[in-house]
């Protein structure tokens, strides 16, 4: 049986005491010894010794909210995530030559376009008669051209759906952006992707996550969404064929167009989602949209006559179905951006006291009324944060703060306040909404600005200490997803899910944390990525 010893560098165990040690032995896929004395006592001629050379060893990262199938497929399609500006986006779209007629892909950044809304005329100019459907970076809208609108039958007389909006020009014609539920109006004409493409997307997403040090993750949507098919079969196939090297928990999608009649269907889907490395015990409810397009649900209206946003699930319905789902043993995983959405979810969870250890979580928690911050700890609700968003980028300075107003803008991403109030913090990337690299996210959590920029930090009083940011991405995320007994910390008997960084971030100035890269990723003692 292969035995590997890591020596010569610091080890952040992320255990309850957040202790450090100096050596680890791995045998049979488990952590067999911790600490130099225990490791030296086990050394034998067959032990493979890896010299850390001062590099940091820590538990594998656990992404608590991510969409790797979507991210992988987008990387295989027209990928706009690395575009620098609107001109760059249009250039890449013009160069993309798909085998089929449609131009599919996404990743464009709302902050790179005036008012966050590119128009169909610019897209028409580079796509011609080929219909185009390109999701934006946050996956709450799509950029479509005239050909796609024509095929979908969307014109000036088409009404907005209850949970979305068709962006319109000054003449009332569809302008080329479909927000939220309006994206579903195109789904019936989109070309279906094959099972092989979905599997290829998952494997590409998994490869990329491993390269970022992610050993396990929570896929936050298992169900049809934004033109994508249900990915349950994709995961089950990968697991059956031993292609799934990461450890995956999934959240079954709650269809907001339906009601409690879907609960029995969710029970059946949960019973099927029982694989060796994949299972889905949670239900994902998206309660609102995003601030940038005025669909995040707020207690008071946006400035500029933009309304109060959208509550996708009526609060009365939410308060009825959440206790029923919890009583049935489902963990609840919510998307909540605005302060009204956060409060509605907390109110619903307050009525869902079952005495069972379900570990409900609210992801994103962007605008949180100060009076709701202590309720996370009081109700035992985990705050699943996306640190990359807590920066002064264009989406924040041009599309969000001006419409929230100064006082309410100061309630955003209250990471330190939640931590101080006793809330459990988990962390995720929401990739492909934002990049999946945990160390980039940790950098932002600590510095409240992007790496390699001199932007003013965003609400720096809400910054986390480095150890708390890393704990959120390891022990915290493992805890909320019920895998803390097996992974998330470096302790004897736990799975050898480990990451070696190319340097020790605890020895760096805070502004250099984002320079850390992943040298090695190990799952159950098997190397799944090596730089």
Automatic annotation (TrEMBL):
Pfam families: Amidohydro_3. GO terms for molecular function: hydrolase activity, acting on carbon-nitrogen (but not peptide) bonds. It comes from the Bacteria. Residues 48-529 form the Amidohydrolase domain. Signal peptide: none annotated. This is Amidohydrolase 3 domain-containing protein. It comes from Saccharopolyspora spinosa. The lineage of its organism: Bacteria, Bacillati, Actinomycetota, Actinomycetes, Pseudonocardiales.
């Amino acid at each position: 049986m292969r035995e590997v010893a890591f020596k010569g560098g610091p080890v952040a165990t992320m255990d309850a005491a957040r202790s450090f040690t100096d050596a680890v032995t791995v045998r049979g896929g488990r952590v067999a010894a911790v600490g130099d004395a225990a490791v030296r006592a086990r050394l034998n001629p067959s032990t493979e010794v890896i010299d850390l050379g001062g590099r940091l060893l820590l538990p594998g990262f656990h992404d608590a909210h991510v969409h790797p199938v979507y991210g992988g497929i987008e990387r295989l399609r027209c990928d706009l995530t690395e575009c620098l500006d609107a001109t760059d986006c249009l250039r890449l779209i013009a160069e993309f030559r798909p085998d089929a007629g449609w131009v599919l892909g996404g990743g464009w950044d709302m902050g790179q376009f005036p008012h966050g809304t590119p128009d169909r005329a610019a897209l028409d100019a580079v796509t011609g008669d080929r219909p185009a459907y390109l999701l934006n970076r946050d996956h709450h809208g799509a950029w479509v051209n005239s050909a796609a609108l024509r095929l979908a039958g969307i014109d000036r007389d088409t009404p907005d759906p209850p949970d979305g909006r068709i962006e319109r020009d000054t003449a009332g014609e569809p302008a080329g952006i479909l927000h939220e539920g309006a994206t579903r109006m195109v789904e019936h004409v989109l070309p279906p992707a094959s099972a092989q493409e979905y599997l290829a997307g998952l494997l590409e997403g998994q490869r990329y996550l491993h390269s970022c040090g992610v050993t396990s993750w929570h896929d936050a949507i298992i169900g049809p969404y934004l033109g994508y098919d249900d990915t349950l079969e994709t995961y089950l196939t990968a697991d059956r064929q031993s292609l799934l090297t990461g450890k995956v928990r999934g959240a079954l999608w709650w269809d907001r167009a339906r009601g409690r009649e879907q609960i029995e269907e969710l029970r059946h889907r949960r019973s099927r989602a029982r694989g060796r490395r994949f299972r889905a015990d949670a239900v994902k409810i998206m309660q609102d949209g995003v601030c940038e397009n005025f669909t995040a649900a707020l207690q008071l209206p946006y400035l500029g006559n933009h309304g109060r946003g959208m509550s996708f699930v009526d609060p009365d319905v939410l308060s009825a179905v959440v206790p029923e789902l919890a009583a049935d043993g489902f963990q609840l995983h919510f998307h909540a951006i605005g302060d009204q959405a956060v409060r509605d979810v907390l109110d619903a969870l307050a009525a869902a006291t079952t005495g069972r250890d379900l570990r409900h979580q609210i992801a994103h928690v962007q605008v949180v009324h100060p009076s709701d911050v202590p309720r996370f700890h009081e109700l035992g609700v985990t705050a699943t944060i996306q640190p990359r968003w807590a920066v002064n980028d264009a989406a924040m300075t041009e599309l969000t703060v001006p419409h929230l107003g100064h006082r309410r803008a100061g309630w955003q991403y209250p990471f330190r306040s939640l931590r101080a109030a006793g809330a459990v913090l988990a962390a995720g990337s929401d990739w492909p909404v934002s990049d999946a690299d945990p160390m980039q996210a940790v950098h932002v959590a600590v510095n409240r600005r992007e790496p390699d920029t001199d932007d003013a930090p965003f609400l720096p009083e809400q910054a986390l200490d480095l150890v708390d940011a890393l704990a959120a991405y390891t022990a915290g995320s493992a805890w909320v997803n019920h895998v803390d007994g097996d992974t998330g910390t470096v302790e004897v008997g736990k799975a050898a899910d480990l990451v070696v960084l190319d340097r020790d971030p605890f020895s760096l100035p805070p502004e250099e944390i984002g320079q850390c890269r992943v040298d090695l990723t190990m799952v159950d003692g098997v190397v799944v990525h090596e730089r």
